[in-house]
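Worked example 2:
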Amino acid sequence: MSTASITLTAQAREESVLIAQGLKRHDAGLLDELIVQYQHRLLRYLLYLTGNRDLAEDLFQETWMRVLMRGDQYNGNARFETWLFTIARNLVIDLRRRRSMVSLEELCDSGEDERPYEVAGNDPNPFDLYQSYENSRIVAELLLTLDPLHREVLVLRFHEELALEEIAQITRAPLSTVKSRLYRGLASLKPRLEAMTAKQEAQ
């Protein structure tokens, strides 16, 4: 994706600036609007990161408290959701460190290879495939079986439709690492999806 294509459009830039100004004023009405607009996306992201609804809901509340208290730190240079997901991710990491001294990166089953891992460009990815199935819950369940880092990138890319550069900003990882996690996550998810659907069709 070219730099031009990920640059904030004039309208998006204006919206981001207005949000930044409103947060600096501690505009309660604006915060309510943001919660309504982003609540489902944020909770879904936290559910995939934690795998636990109660924990995700607690972190959901804490994320919005951080937005309220630290709104003056948002300058509008990035999309609001990028900043929001970064706050949520940092809270998850802080919680894991307090509980087990394990970072999100260390939860990955195997060491990461920084070299690009490419998949065949013409093959449909699992998110294309599941569009043809009536129940997308299959993909949601299988995502939870992946390493947290691979799962996170897949959720941000395909559910939240963020650019790879935005994902790199949220995860504080090099773009090459984000691409590697994306490709490896897809490569791991596809056979699991195929096996699951084959099993259901055989029943």
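The chain has a mean pLDDT of 80. The longest helix spans residues 175-202.
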